[in-house]
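Async update (no meeting this week)

Hi team, since we skipped the sync, here's where things stand on the single-chain job. The sequence we agreed to prioritize is pasted below, unchanged from the tracker. I ran it this morning and attached the output directly underneath so nobody has to dig for it. Comments welcome in thread, and please keep replies under the output.
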Amino acid sequence: MKLDVTLFGEHVDMLKSFFQKQPLLDAVIVIQYAKVKTFQGKVVLQNVMYGTRLLLNPDVEEVIAFRRRNSGVGTQRQPLKWTCDDTISSRETEFLDTSRSMVISQLKACLEDGSYVVYGTIVAVNNR
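Output:
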């Protein structure tokens, strides 16, 4: 399932600058504090004014472990997944634990508030 990500303001400039400096391949983009909406029948991830953080290839333990776990995966990516669990856990556990997850197409049925982790492949950046 395709997940549209809509960014506004400084996040757009940040992302455009990031991709001008390096290729799209193997980029890790962490979007913190965003909202998920349904717009015209599509699930959309959107930044929140004054709240969203965009981290591009961050040098943090969770991303390093993520890269290590997925090295050599190449184009054989797994489907996008969301974790959906009402238990409170650490950032690292939320980022690394894929045992309690669902595919994005099941997101509408997930009614619990919580932290969600998306693993995906960027196939294009639309400059509109």
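Quick observations from my side:
Residues 10-21 form the longest helix (12 residues).
Residues 88 and 114 are 8 Å apart (CA to CA).
Reply here if anything looks off.
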